[in-house]
TrEMBL record:
This is HlyD family secretion protein. It is found in: Cell envelope. The keyword Lyase does not apply. Keywords: Coiled coil. Belongs to the membrane fusion protein (MFP) (TC 8.A.1) family. Pfam families: Beta-barrel_YknX (PF25990), BSH_CzcB (PF25973). One of its GO terms (cellular component) is cell envelope.
């Protein structure tokens, strides 16, 4: 009996020992797993980039004004009413002709008398000539005839003026196409010289005026295209162009803003006063290589991306890959990094997880990467390791568990708030690393990697990845304010 128990116990001990050995050999190393943090990457792909300036305002008419009479006169008939749509040149009111019949009779009577006087003086001259009058007498008679003829001519001119004054003044006409919005005169009323008789507005040609920051106004030009969206017509977009740029700005909180007026090409369904958003196109490129804007960093005036390096790939080729110790090609340490690739403060790169990631929401030493905006909330969100395809802008995305990265120098072009053009240094289909921040349970409670905030239209930041790793700027914004 004792022997049987001893065998059973010995067998149990052997099984436990074997299980322990197998567990030790086969069980994954938690430390290794923790260090093998997945890289969030994106694929270099062709796309369209639109660089522009946006702002909000309300719809207003381009042409509006009052209509005044140039001369006083009695109104014969008002031809339009409030709300009528008129064309340029349409008659708005007519005037009554002036009654000057009595003056005309007196003028015509005077003219008849002058003609009779002329006839008498002509007969007198003939008589003097037949009776052998002296030269002085004949000259005096001739001057009398000339004076009578001059008086007749002057009287004829006076009658012509009276005839013109008896005609009604020209009708008042519309100076432009539009809608009559106010009528301030009635039939038979006396219109005073310079008085406002009508107001009218052109509701067909509409515009939106937005305020543009002084840093952006040099890029705004007349006739630049724009897109207008309205809160009241959410499913429609309206095309337009810049028609006016203010010559003087207004100061608000230390920032100078300039009014830019954008005219709508079509205005069907649009009403004056509607709230509008305007996006003015400064530059646009189609079918160019793009990457997410947060994948690019600036170091000493040059631009770089990090690309994953698989195990066994010891090459550091590329336009400008890091040398040993995280130094730049010229031997100088990258901005914000100590020589030898160690972060400032004595921390080593081993203190940070691989893949350009940091814990507690802080970017690793080496400075901020990506675009530096003008303030605002970061657009990053929680991005789990190995995001699904299409989860990143600039093409597809993938996830790599490779711990190595290398920096590649690139030439960049224009950018928008999400993507940036790659002119050289990468090819379509290449993979770039998206900087992430790993949040601990004490900071966010999620323990998932988060994409760093991206700057807006303000330009690149001056920091970069230190020693081949790095994080995004802390609290980068979408742009819209001042740096």
């Amino acid at each position: 009996m004792n022997k049987k128990k001893t065998v059973i116990i010995s067998s149990s001990i052997a099984v436990v020992a074997i299980a322990g050995v197998l567990a030790y050999v086969l069980w994954p190393d938690a430390g290794k797993e923790a260090s093998a943090v997945p890289l969030n990457t994106a694929i270099v792909a062709k796309g369209n980039i639109l660089n522009g300036v946006s702002g909000s305002g309300s719809v207003s008419p381009i042409n509006t004004g009052s209509i005044r009479t140039k001369e006083a006169g009695e109104v014969d008939q008002v031809m339009v009413a409030k709300g009528d749509v008129v064309k340029k040149g349409d008659v708005l009111i007519t005037f009554v002709a002036s009654d000057m019949s009595d003056k005309m009779k007196e003028a015509e009577k005077s003219l008849t008398s002058l003609k009779t006087d002329l006839t008498d003086k002509q007969e007198n001259y003939k008589t003097l000539a037949m009776n052998n009058a002296t030269e002085e007498e004949l000259a005096s008679a001739k001057k009398a005839i000339e004076k009578a003829e001059s008086d007749i001519a002057e009287q004829q001119e006076s009658i012509a003026d009276l005839e013109e004054d008896m005609l009604p003044q020209d009708p008042l006409t519309a100076p432009m196409d539009g809608t009559i919005t106010a009528v301030n005169i009635t039939d038979g009323e006396q219109a005073q010289n310079g008085s406002e008789l009508f107001t009218m507005t052109d509701y067909e040609n509409l515009s939106v005026t937005v305020q543009v920051d002084e840093l952006d106004i040099p890029n705004i030009k007349l006739d630049q295209s724009a897109t207008i969206t309205l809160d009241a017509l959410e499913d429609q977009e309206f095309e337009g162009k810049v028609i006016e740029i203010a010559k003087e700005g207004t100061s608000s909180n230390g920032v100078s803003l300039f009014d830019v007026t954008v005219g709508l090409n079509e205005s069907e369904g649009v009403l004056v006063g509607m709230s509008a958003e305007v996006a003015i196109t400064i530059e646009e490129k189609n079918d160019v290589l793009t990457v997410p804007i947060e994948a690019v960093s600036e170091i000493n005036g040059k631009y770089y991306v990090n690309v994953p390096v698989t195990e066994g790939d010891g090459s550091e080729t590329g336009a400008a890959s890091d040398t040993a110790g995280g130094q730049m090609p010229d031997g100088a340490a990258p901005a914000g990094s100590a020589a030898g690739g160690q972060p400032p403060g004595g921390e080593t790169s081993a203190d940070l997880p691989a893949g350009g990631q940091a814990f507690s929401g802080e970017a690793p030493p080496g400075g901020a990467s990506g675009w530096q905006g003008r303030g605002g909330e970061g657009r990053g969100g929680t991005v789990p390791g190995g995001a699904p395809s299409g989860g990143f802008p600039g093409g597809g995305s993938s996830s790599s568990t490779a711990s190595g990265q290398k920096r590649v120098e690139v030439t960049v072009g224009i950018h928008d708030e999400s993507n940036i053009e790659i002119v050289s240094g990468l090819s379509e289909g290449d993979e770039v690393v998206i900087p992430t921040v790993i949040s601990t349970g004490s900071s966010t409670g999620s323990g998932q990697p988060q994409m760093g905030g991206m700057g807006g239209m303000g330009g690149f930041s001056t920091g970069g990845f230190g020693s081949g790793t790095g994080g995004p700027p802390s609290g980068g914004g979408m742009g819209g304010g001042r740096p």
